[in-house]
Amino acid sequence: MSSGKRVPLLDDDDMFMPAFDKALRSIFERFDADKDGYLNVDEVQAFAVATNGKKFDEDTMAEIALYFGDDDQKPTMMVSVTGFMDMYHLQSQNDEDETWKDLTRLGFDHELNPVPAKQE
Questions:
Q1: Residue 76 phi/psi, 5° resolution?
Q2: Contact 9/17 with Cβ under 8 angstroms?
């Protein structure tokens, strides 16, 4: 059971801690519905709804495509696992609380263990 104290996401060199790396890769795989190794527009929007309760606006999608999209896939917006990890790396450096909100919404506890879904 989690004690409520958050495990670190990044180490002293701003590199992913192993548990955070594992959690992000599992999140990416969860949203890669077609299992092609990329998040397409619909998959990115499904991720947005899961983490933010609404789709990303056009400007946010353009920024994601520009900064985190796979250059080899342009003009189609496709985010590889590397781009997804880069997106979370930047967010975690700048606003760790926002990353933790996402992780909690996506079913992880403060030790980055998956929390079983509640049965209704």
A1: -70, 135
A2: yes
CA distance readout (Å), 75 to 18, 41, 55, 60, 79 = 33, 12, 21, 16, 12
Closest CA to 93 of 12, 29, 5, 7: 12
Q: If DSSP codes are grouped into helix, strand and coil, which group holds residue 20?
A: helix
Model confidence, pTM: 0.91
- Cα→Cα distances 85→4, 25, 67, 69, Å: 25, 8, 12, 11
Percentages of the chain per state (helix, strand, coil), in multiples of 5: 55, 5, 40
Report which of 19, 1, 42 is spatially closest to residue 99, judged by C-alpha positions.
Answer: 19
Q: Which two tokens stand for residue 113?
A: 């263990």
* pLDDT tens for the chain, residues 1 to 120: 445 699 999 999 999 999 999 999 999 999 999 999 999 999 999 999 999 999 999 999 999 999 999 999 888 889 999 999 999 999 999 999 999 999 999 999 999 999 986 655
